[in-house]
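Putative major facilitator superfamily transporter: structure tokens wanted.
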Amino acid sequence: MSLSDLPGHVPDPSAVAASPGSGSTAALAEPERKVTARWVTGLVLVNVGINAAFFGPINIFIGQQAISIDAPSKEAIFSLVTGCGAAVSLVANPLFGALSDRTVSGFGRRAPWILAGAILAAAALLAMSGATTVAMMLLFWCLVQLGANAAYAAITAAVPDRVPVPQRATVGGLAAMGQTVGILIGAVFGAVVSGNYMVGYWLCAAALVLSVLPYLFHRNDPVLPLSARPPFRLKAFARGFWISPVRHPDFAWAWITRFLMNVGNQLTIVYLLFFLRDVIGHEDPALGVLVLTGIYAVLVIITAVLAGPWSDRVGKRKPFVIGSSLAIAMAGLILAFFPVWPGALAGAAVLGIGFGAYLAVDFALLTQVLPQAADRGKDMGVINVAASLPQVFAPTLAFLSIQYLGGYVTLFSAAAVIGLLGAVFVVKIKGVA
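Answer:
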């Protein structure tokens, strides 16, 4: 049974029609027609579900589970589990992106991976709820990352597949809104279940499965003809994951900028639960995470939705990224030198303002430096590594900062410095204004 057989599905003619050009197909053509509100809504909801599945556990449930297993070693357990999961995402995201580029299916290229990835990640979240050892936590969280990154690689590649360049920052802003709502929903789950992380994992799994259905029923995912798929050669397939910074310098600088901005952001939030518990002395750290995440989320949504269309109108990307990096650096300094509840509130607000504008505009910038249309999924997967790698790097740097390098002042100061470097390197991009 294919997705097109499901009740209520109305095929989109643009998903199967060939685009004009010399033998090109709709799957590989540069998009020119604006996407519909219904398609964008499906895209946003997928981002909501994936980010709820990611950040509910990362911000709340894995930390609570680590405390229940071995409270004195909670930081080490948290860093081990999240770091190994992020290491899986480093491989999974570009791999599934590349596989989706080659997928010949009546579903299209991206939809099969969104469906399969959501099912795998949801099943692993359910298994995670019953994990009673660090080894079980580690295994199941890696499976969550495997499935969720398959879905994320596919839905990310769908944007350059279907969205024309003049609409990309607007769609990027709405996708960023979806990501942020997902993070907020994860925090809401954490507050609602009142420490019962088992129920929290079940809620995250349900949110993920339900979120992908609207997109799957109303996808605009052109079919790749078998004749358009190049022969598979393992050596060439593996070599394709290396994108030469000499031949494609703009792609390289965009990758580095994305990496640094995400490291700066991750360092400010990775130990938020522990920061509220151990430094600020908040009486209900999970509720505190919800409040801070709520402030962060609202401002990310506002700035993303405003900055995306603004960037499309003026046709510029880099000034928005530079301003965002300065805001992220300021948020780190506020948290470093004002480690009190009002300081945490201010830091969350400034971080939200900066990261919201960044998410909307940088996504559009990244899609404009992709080397070629046939490899959009793989290349966006490589770009997504710049967002996944900080999940390995940031917990490790955070652990070293807390345990050996001076504590939270060092941690948040490092976030500020790294954020500022993002502003430096985005200037190097020449092909995008």
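The CA atoms of residues 167 and 312 lie 7 Å apart. The chain has one domain: 32-226+237-426.

Cheers.
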